[in-house]
Amino acid sequence: MKRPISQADQAFIAYCIKELKLTTAPKIRIGDDHRKAQQVRAMGYYNPAENLIWVLRGDRVPADWYRTLAHELVHWRQRELGQEMDGSDGSDLENQANATAGVLLREWGRRYETIYVIEDLADDPNSDITQSLGAELPLISGSDLADEHMVSYSL
């Protein structure tokens, strides 16, 4: 059964978009099928040819998949800046994506400790994330595509 994209998930994506100063709206697919991760041998990827980010949410704690998502959003920004995409292990772009994603995640985690638990407590209307952001949450339109949630933004 597919779980919806929560307000907390949307808030994290909006935070990354703002902090990374993205100028184009990312196309993001959030999937729950671990078999796809096994098939692509990754927990997430950015495909410049399709202009798409895919991230495995699955049975991962939010902090884990949020970090993967932030990493791929850094790659999105690198492409916006005209940097040559080089996803090889240890490349400057990969190292930058790893470091920047870690900084984004740690800052978010200091604000919202609920990302460190597997239960989706952030959907609770009394949660720290939904209370503090309220009306600041972005407008997101989503539709199911191929058993995955599509998250699209207007900037």
Q: What is the H-and-E element order? A: HEHEEHHHEE
Structural class determined from secondary elements: alpha+beta
Whole-number mean pLDDT: 81
List the uncertain runs: 137-146
| Main sheet record | 5 strands, mixed
Across the major sheet, the strand order is 2-3-1-5-4
Silhouette: globular
Molecular structure report:
With 155 residues, the protein is α+β, with helices and mostly antiparallel strands. Helices cover 43% and strands 17% of the residues. The chain contains five helices and five strands, in the order αβαββαααββ. It has a five-stranded mixed sheet, with helices on both faces. A hairpin with a 2-residue loop joins strand 4 and strand 5. Helix 1 packs parallel to helix 3. The longest helix is centred in the middle third of the chain and has 20 residues. The radius of gyration is 15 Å and the shape is globular. The N and C termini lie far apart (31 Å). About 6% of the residues have low confidence.
Name its key features:
155 residues, alpha+beta, 5-stranded mixed sheet, 5 helices, 17% strand
Topology of this structure?
Elements: H1 7-20, E1 27-31, H2 34-40, E2 44-47, E3 52-56, H3 62-80, H4 92-111, H5 128-133, E4 140-145, E5 148-153
Parallel strand pairs: 1-3
Antiparallel strand pairs: 1-5, 2-3, 4-5
Helix pairs in contact: 1-3, 3-4
